[in-house]
């Protein structure tokens, strides 16, 4: 029988790596950052300076004028303990202040990024509104306004009145021509009847005076 294959010691890339146990102390960075900011903020106030001045003054007065048996940091040793305490306080204050500044810098960067994103959105909205206003201006420019419609109606009314006046004048002209034509026809008819009557009754120089005179028919 074939022997089973032994498991290889190589790490497979398709499997998550096993978490290694760490003996380092764990702390919440956010909580530690908030505490450091509070301390750094307190170190930068006038109250801390007053408290620090009073503490150093009492320390020096006590260890200078108090009896030697009750002095815990005598002047003969140049206030070694006070120097150590101040050095320790300064060594811790500087990193705390730097940590608070770094956190403030991160917040400022995030705030600046949000401001830039908001400004970009505002610029996009302004450009959109500008294009919309331009399109509305073009659309309004193509729409007939009240003054334009009023002018067009006035021109149409004037044109109608002018055409009506021209039509009435043409009708009067045609009636005048027709009356003149009828008058010419009546005159031609009277002249023709007169000539016919003259041919039917020829006159002579020696004719009788008792015969009635026959004139032209003007009754037409």
Brief write-up:
This protein has 220 residues and is mainly α.
Describe what you observe in this structure:
By secondary structure, this protein is mainly α. Among the domains are: 29-118, no CATH class; 144-193. It contains 4 helices and no strands. The protein has helices at 29-43, 46-65, 80-142, 146-200. Helix 1 (29-43) crosses helix 3. Mean pLDDT is 79; it is low at 203-211 and 216-220.
Helix and strand arrangement:
Blueprint: H1 29-43, H2 46-65, H3 80-142, H4 146-200
Helix pairs in contact: 1-3
Order of helices and strands: HHHH
> Ends: how far apart?
154 Å
Summarize the amount of helix as a percent range: 55-70%
Which sheet architecture does the biggest sheet show?
none
Beta fraction of the residues?
A: under 5%
Mean pLDDT rating? 79
Number of helices in the DSSP assignment: 4
C-alpha Rg (nearest Å): 64 Å
Secondary-structure class: mainly alpha
Global shape: rod-shaped
Contiguous low-pLDDT stretches (5 residues minimum) are 203-211, 216-220
* Total E-strand runs: 0
């Amino acid at each position: 029988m074939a022997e089973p294959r032994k498991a290889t010691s190589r790490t497979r890339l398709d499997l998550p790596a096993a978490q290694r146990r760490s003996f380092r102390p764990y702390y919440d960075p956010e909580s530690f950052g908030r505490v450091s900011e509070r301390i750094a903020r307190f170190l930068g106030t006038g109250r801390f300076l007053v408290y620090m001045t009073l503490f150093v003054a009492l320390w020096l007065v006590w260890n200078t004028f108090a009896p030697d048996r009750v002095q815990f940091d005598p002047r003969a040793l140049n206030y070694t303990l006070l120097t150590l305490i101040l050095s320790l306080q300064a060594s811790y204050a500087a990193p705390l202040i730097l940590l608070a500044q770094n956190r403030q810098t991160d917040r400022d960067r995030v705030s600046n990024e949000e401001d830039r994103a908001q400004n970009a959105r505002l610029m996009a909205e302004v450009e959109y509104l500008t294009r919309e206003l331009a399109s509305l201006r073009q659309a309004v420019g193509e729409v007939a306004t009240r003054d334009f419609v009023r002018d067009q109606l006035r021109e149409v009314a004037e044109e109608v009145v002018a055409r009506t006046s021209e039509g009435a004048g043409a009708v009067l002209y045609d009636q005048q021509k027709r009356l003149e034509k009828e008058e010419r026809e009546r005159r031609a008819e009277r002249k023709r009847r007169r000539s016919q009557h003259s041919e039917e009754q020829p006159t002579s120089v020696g004719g009788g005076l008792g015969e009635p005179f026959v004139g032209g028919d003007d009754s037409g």
